[in-house]
Write a structure and sequence with these properties.
The complex is a heterotrimer. By secondary structure, chain A is mainly alpha-helical. Chain A has one domain: Orthogonal Bundle (Helix Hairpins). Chain A has three helices and no strands. The termini of chain C are far apart. At the A-C interface, helix 1 of A face helix 28 of C.
């Protein structure tokens, strides 16, 4: 039983690290968004796994549902920003978006 | 008249008049002058009414007024009058009126001058009438500020210097007084009566009906007395804290000099006799020799310094230092038997105290007159150099005659007021200390020297030697009225001094008795504690 | 009541001149300058005063049956008799009314009003009326009336709108022109008369002091009457200030008396029931039959007694005493006042200078009355003087009479000669009183007042006649021009010189000087160590005769020395010569009968009780024997003969030197030039006092002023500067340190932020890397810190 939780956590971690690497390396805004989705889903896997194998009960699964909703909303907002950015700069290269530099 | 109303009216009529002056058109100079003169006349009339209502046979303070003022700090609005304050209230009313009449020579910012003058009068009256320590202190400060501006704005060439010097000296004194006041307040438990001068005096005298429970310890009395004395000695002024006086007098305009010499200096003497002595009998006796010595030094030192002056007004100012020395001398000739604490020759001390009180009144009249006489000639020729006068007796005979009378009053000529005060004080001194009595008596020679020499240089001689000889016009009616009033009073007081002694004697006798018992009580505790050790 | 009537009469005489003064000074100021009204008012006042005084004298005599005049041969030694004629000093009139048995009461005292009352102490104005008071009143008012009349003539030049003062110059060399001040002169004279009479009437020593000062100020006003003259105002100041030096001593005397006796009154005070409440000073000192003061058995101090002679006790039951030494101090103090007022050595220098005043002033104030007040006071206060004080008085008088007489020899100003003669004669009076010749001293006071005022008026007449020429060197031969003046002056000169044909005729001065010299001889017989007290007045009697006749010969005999003065000289009008004649009669005959005559008997009617018997044994340190009446009487004829011989010799020498041409005066002067210049410079007293007192006083004054300016004010300014410096440092501290720290902090914050902002690259991928690295580092640290 412990071995099974362990496996799920491994999957979650791989997903998370992939997402992070994707965010750090992709210059395309859409790519970065995809990395974010991976990170969120890595976390989702963990929530569900803990929900199943520990005494947390349904809490983890509800939380993962929240995250899915949140990811959808976030994607909508982020895509809107990306679209506007593209309208202004004719690119979605995040390296060009350095106006917030201190 | 209702005494509560009367006392408050005496204090506040000038202040109300000053407030109303604010609504006057400042270009209507004559109206403003007559309005202010009217206010001072009414005030003087009220003081006369007070004299009529006053019963000299009753001991203690009369016509007491008491109303709560600042309950949190137990500050009360307490007024009262007795034989010690009444003569000074009368003097204040009189001198204020006369110097207001002398203020016609002021032409700059007349409205502001009159407002400050009237406020000053309120302050002075308040000082003499209040019997709450805090109220006294407030009035003391109230009177200080107008004086500062009156010297600093309407004064002579070095007016700023003189005004600041005057202000700082007096302020230093009042700070010491404040410390002493708080010492008494907290030592007596910060109760409702802790600012009441009458109750504090009762405690110090060990009276049976004292409302305050505590006793003022001898060491507290000594400390408080020294603080209070320095504060009042500055105002008196006594050697060596007198140097503000010549400068203030020289720079102040004539009417303000009259007020300064006639009333303000008396506050020092009044403070000593009303506060320092009754509240600290032990301290007073402890310091008596120093007081007498300071008085004698002031007499001689002031006279010598006057001898050397070339400025007419400065000479008169130093004569004030000399004359006020008699006040200090007379107050302090309190001889005791070291062993028993009993007073020796209490009647001589009583005489000295009466003489000192009389000297205050006499000096108020004679020195105000002398300053006025200097002002009359200064208004005409605009200089005060003694060596550049001469021959005025021939050019202005009436002025010369009136001046001679007033200067003789200052010289201490019998039949004029100065004599009674000086001689009564001096002959009561031998009982205290023959040596100091002899030194004090030698003042008569010096006084004659500097006054006669000054008169010779100013009034006598073949001709006038200074500038503006063409401006020397005979003395006018207003000036004659002022000088004549002062000279007439000088004669009345000199010939029949009972006018004042009858008012004072009950209060001074009572004061002397309470001081005697107060000292004896404190001395007993000191002796006991020494015996235990 | 006799006492009340006497008091009222004398008070009228005393106060009328004061009323006169007020009317004259104000009326004159607003009146016409050419009006003589002021003078007549003054004359009326003082004349009425004389009538009041004279009637008071008569009334007083009648009330006691003129017992004082009953000459009992030479029974002065009979102490018991004098004791009876003189009841305890001063039973007040109230006491008198209660006890009518005192039909021979001669002393009346009482209180006018109180100046101030302090417990048991009471300062009041009193009156004290005895034969001396009445004699003085009559003398003063009589002489003053004469002098007032004389002054109407003498001062008539002031009756103008434009008076030219030839002795005062403006800076451009012109004479001073001013309105006449006729009225003012008479106003001041009236004020003086008031003060002088007040002094005589005074019933306590404090009141004497009051009027003492008032006569001083009147003297000041009158000496300085010509205010335009520098010399006059200098002389006035000198007179007043030197008098104040004496008054300083007087004040010390007053203090001692006040402190130990607690009263100033001479005579007793009684309450409404006639019970004596306060014995008065004279009743507080008692002497036994031998003249020894009663002493306290415990302390040995002099006992203060009640009126019946028993020791007095104070409130605490202690017997009241005064140390003998302080009794001496009190006496010397009061005498110091007399030294000043009577121009005695060492304060004599003011009187010659006082001659700057108009001549009637010199006659009234500076010869007859005010300067004699010192002598009067010594006489009045006699019971309080102990032997040491009396000896001092005698020696002061002795020195004065000699010094002044020597200066008079060389003086050439006619008024200065008389002034020095006045000082010398006052010395005689003091000497007489000092050697226990109480009556003799006061006798000389009265006679001197008459003949000296006469001589001063004569000199005034000369000066007026010679148009204000005072130098005798410009006079001579004037008797032809002014016979009345010359004759009356001769009467005065004979009187003062003491010439007489014994048994036939003798002028007043002979009798009184005789009495003084006799007392001095008796004294020096009793105390051989003090022989100078007899020798000096004897020699000076000769000098007096010499210089007085020198003056007369110089002025009236011989050839005119200055024809200009002589030609314009004329006899004075009647208003000036009549007073001369009146006074000359008194100068000649007032002392008729000598010591058995009415004047002497009147003066000594209320002699202090201890004088008659003298004082034989004594507790005094000096061990003096004071002669009584009998001792003086025994040597009287001897002393009289010697004095007469001295006077005649002086007269003869004066005649040889100045009345004839036998001796070349210039030659004599050249041979004695050293002595002459010493005397001419008045023994250098003025220079001495200037160096000793005036200059030091001014130096000390300058020093005090310097201390104020350069010490006290500098300390103050130093304190002020210190405050300013401290304030500057305070500002510096605030600005540099406190503010600097705050600024530093803000700058540091800024620069930290500035340097950290580079981290904010704006690059999204870098941020992600930062997060990753950060998280990893965090975990690494966590694991490192909390290993499982």
């Amino acid at each position: 039983m412990a071995a099974e939780l362990h496996s799920y956590l491994m999957v979650g971690a791989v997903l998370f690290v992939c997402g992070v690497i994707c965010m750090a390396t992709k210059r395309n805004g859409i790519g970065v968004l995809m990395g974010v989705e991976l990170v969120l889903n890595g976390a989702n896997v963990n929530f569900v796994a803990f929900s199943r194998y520990t005494k947390l009960g349904l809490d983890g699964q509800i939380f993962s549902l929240f995250i899915i909703v949140l990811a959808a909303a976030e994607a909508a907002v982020a895509l809107a920003i990306a679209l506007n950015f593209y309208n202004n700069h004719l690119t979605i290269d995040v390296d060009r978006a350095n106006k917030l530099k201190g | 008249m209702n005494p509560e109303f009367l006392l408050s009216a005496i204090i506040f009529v000038p202040a109300v008049a000053a407030f109303l002056l604010a609504f006057f058109d400042s270009r209507n100079v004559e109206v403003i002058r007559f309005w202010s003169l009217g206010a001072t006349i009414i005030t003087f009339g009220l003081t006369l009414a007070l004299w009529m209502q006053f019963d000299p046979a009753v001991p203690g303070l009369q016509m007491n007024v008491a109303a709560e003022w600042i309950p949190t700090w137990n500050v009360w609005y307490r007024l009262g009058v007795d034989g010690i304050s009444l003569p000074l209230v009368l003097l204040t009313g009189l001198i204020s009126m006369l110097s207001m009449a002398a203020s016609w020579s002021i032409t700059k910012h007349v409205k502001g001058y009159m407002v400050l003058f009237l406020l000053l009068e309120s302050g002075m009256m308040g000082v003499f009438l209040s019997i709450d320590f805090f109220l006294f202190y407030v009035f003391w400060e109230v009177m200080l500020l107008p004086m500062y501006f009156l010297i600093g704005v309407w004064g002579g060439p070095r007016k700023e210097y003189a005004a600041i010097k005057f202000f700082l000296y007096t302020l230093a004194g009042s700070v010491l007084m404040l410390i002493a006041m708080l010492m008494f307040y907290f030592d007596t438990g910060a109760t409702v009566e802790s600012f009441n001068l009458v109750e504090l005096a009762k405690v110090a005298a060990g009276a049976a009906d004292a409302k305050l429970a505590t006793t003022l310890t001898p060491s507290l009395q000594i400390t408080a007395f020294i603080l209070l004395f320095i504060g009042f000695a500055i105002k008196l002024p006594a050697f060596p804290v007198h140097t503000w006086l010549p400068d203030a007098h020289v720079e102040a305009p004539t009417p303000i000099s009259m007020i300064l010499a006639g009333v303000l200096l008396k506050m020092g003497g009044y403070g000593i006799i009303r506060i320092a002595f009754p509240l600290c009998p032990y301290g007073a006796q402890y310091a008596a020799y120093a007081l007498v010595a300071i008085g004698v030094i002031s007499i001689i030192y002031g006279a010598f310094a006057a001898l050397a002056q070339t400025d007419f007004k400065r000479l008169v100012a130093y004569s004030s230092v000399s004359h006020m020395g008699y006040v200090l001398l007379g107050l302090a000739v309190w001889k005791i038997n070291e062993g028993t604490g009993a007073t020796i020759g209490g009647d001589f001390w009583l005489m000295g105290m009466n003489g000192a009180m009389f000297q205050m009144i006499a000096h108020g009249i004679s020195s105000a007159g002398m300053f006025f006489m200097v002002g009359v000639i200064y208004d005409r020729v605009h200089h005060r150099d003694l060596n550049r006068f001469g021959g005025l007796m021939a050019k202005m005979p009436l002025y010369g005659g009136l001046s001679a009378g007033l200067f003789f009053a200052g010289l201490g000529l019998p039949g004029l007021c100065g004599f009674i005060g000086e001689v009564f004080v001096v002959i009561s001194t031998w009982n205290y200390s023959p040596l100091l009595a002899i030194i004090a008596a030698s003042g008569v020679i010096l006084t004659a020297g500097y006054i006669l020499w000054a008169m010779q240089r100013v009034y006598l001689g073949a001709e006038y030697k200074g500038p503006h000889a063409e401006d020397i016009t005979p003395i006018n009616g207003r000036e004659v009225a002022i000088a004549g009033t002062l000279l007439a009073l000088a004669i009345v007081l000199g010939v029949y001094p009972r006018v004042m002694f009858d008012v004072m004697s009950t209060s001074t006798t009572e004061l002397v008795e309470s001081l005697k018992t107060g000292y004896q009580k404190a001395a007993t505790t000191v002796n006991q504690s020494q015996a235990q050790r | 009541m006799v006492g009340e009537t006497l008091r009222n009469l004398l008070m009228v005489a005393w106060l009328l001149p004061l009323a006169g003064f007020a009317i004259e000074i104000f009326g004159g100021f607003w009146g016409k300058r050419t009006s003589k009204t002021a003078a007549w008012i003054a004359v009326a006042c003082i004349g009425t005063g004389f009538l009041c005084s004279a009637s008071a004298l008569v009334l007083w005599g009648n009330s006691n049956g003129w017992t004082v005049l009953e000459s009992d041969g030479h029974g002065h030694a009979d102490a018991a008799h004098t004791e009876a004629a003189h009841p305890e000093p001063g039973h007040s009139e109230a006491a008198d009314s209660a006890d009518t048995a005192h039909s021979k009461q001669t002393v009346y005292s009482g209180t006018l009003y109180s100046l101030g009352k302090f417990g048991s102490l009471n300062v009041s104005l009193d009156y004290y009326i005895d034969s001396l008071t009445l004699t003085m009143f009559t003398m003063v008012t009589l002489i003053a009336t004469c002098i007032h009349l004389f002054a109407i003539g003498y001062m008539s030049e002031e009756l103008t709108e434009e008076y030219v003062d030839h002795h005062a110059h403006l800076s451009n060399g012109h004479h001073v022109h001013r309105p006449g001040r006729f009225y003012r002169f008479f106003a001041f004279l009236s004020l003086f008369c008031f003060s002088m009479l007040g002094l005589v009437l005074a019933g306590n020593i404090f009141q004497v002091f009051i009027f003492w000062e008032l006569v001083g100020i009147c003297s000041f006003l009158l000496i300085g009457f010509y205010t335009e003259r520098k010399s006059a105002s200098n002389a006035a100041n000198k007179a007043f200030i030197m008098n104040r030096v004496g008054d300083f001593g007087f004040l010390i005397g007053l203090m001692v008396i006040w402190t130990y006796f607690g009263t100033f009154q001479f005579g007793p005070t009684s309450n409404a029931d006639g019970v004596i409440t306060d014995p008065g000073l004279f009743g507080m000192i008692h002497r036994d039959a031998a003249g020894t003061l009663l002493t306290d058995p415990v302390t040995g101090d002099v006992a203060i007694t009640t009126v019946d002679g028993t020791p007095a006790v104070d409130g605490a039951g202690q017997s009241r005493t005064i140390p003998y030494s302080l009794l001496v101090v009190a006496g010397l103090g009061v005498f110091a006042g007399c030294i000043g007022k009577s121009a005695q050595f060492p304060l004599q220098t003011w009187l010659p200078d006082a001659m700057e005043g108009p001549t009637p002033v010199s006659a009234l104030v500076h010869s007859a009355t005010m300067v004699a007040a010192g002598v009067y006071l010594v006489g009045r206060f006699y019971p309080m003087f102990v032997q040491e004080v009396l000896l001092t008085i005698a020696y002061v008088g002795c020195i004065t009479l000699f010094v002044a007489a020597t200066i008079a020899i060389v003086a050439t100003d006619i008024k200065k000669v008389l002034a020095y003669s006045t000082i010398s004669q006052l010395g005689y009076m003091m000497l007489g009183l000092g050697v226990f010749g109480w009556g003799a001293g006061l006798f000389h006071l009265i006679t001197h007042a008459f003949f000296k005022s006469l001589m001063f008026l004569c000199s005034g007449s000369v000066i007026y006649g010679c148009h204000h020429e005072q130098e005798m060197t410009k006079m001579g031969g004037l008797w032809k021009k002014m016979p009345i003046t010359a004759f009356t002056m001769l009467v005065g000169v004979i009187a003062i010189a003491g010439l007489a044909i014994p048994g036939v005729i003798a002028f007043s001065g002979f009798h009184s000087k005789d009495a003084v010299v006799a007392s001095a001889l008796a004294f020096s017989d009793a105390n051989p160590g003090h022989f100078l007290l007899f020798i000096m007045p004897l020699i000076t009697a000769g000098i007096t005769a010499f210089y007085m006749f020198r003056l007369w010969f110089f002025t009236f005999l011989g050839k005119p020395r200055d024809m200009h003065v002589y030609d314009h000289c004329h006899e004075s009008p009647w208003i000036m010569t009549v007073p001369l004649l009146v006074l000359s009669v008194f100068a000649a005959f007032c002392a008729v009968g000598g010591e058995d005559g009415p004047l002497y008997q009147l003066i000594t009617g209320d002699e202090p009780t201890h004088v008659a018997a003298g004082i034989a044994s004594t507790q005094s340190v000096s061990g003096l024997t004071l002669p009584g009446h009998s001792a003086i009487h025994d040597v009287h004829s001897k002393a009289g003969a010697l004095a007469l011989f001295a006077a005649v010799s002086g007269t003869v020498i004066a005649y040889v030197l100045y009345g004839t041409t036998l001796v070349n005066l210039a030659e004599v002067k050249r041979h004695l030039s050293g002595l002459h210049s010493f005397l001419w410079n008045k023994w250098h007293f003025d220079e001495l006092y200037d160096a000793l007192f005036m200059k030091p006083a001014h130096i000390v004054g300058k020093f005090c002023a310097w201390v104020d300016k350069s010490l006290f004010d500098e300390i103050l300014h130093g304190a002020a500067r210190t405050c300013v410096i401290v304030a500057k440092w305070d500002r510096l501290f605030d600005e540099k340190l406190v503010d600097g720290f705050v600024n530093l902090l803000s700058r540091a914050t800024w620069s930290v932020g500035d340097s950290l902002k580079v981290v904010q690259t704006g690059k999204l991928r870098q941020y992600v890397m930062f997060i990753v690295v950060g998280v990893v580092t965090l975990f690494a640290v966590l694991f490192a810190t909390f290993p499982r």
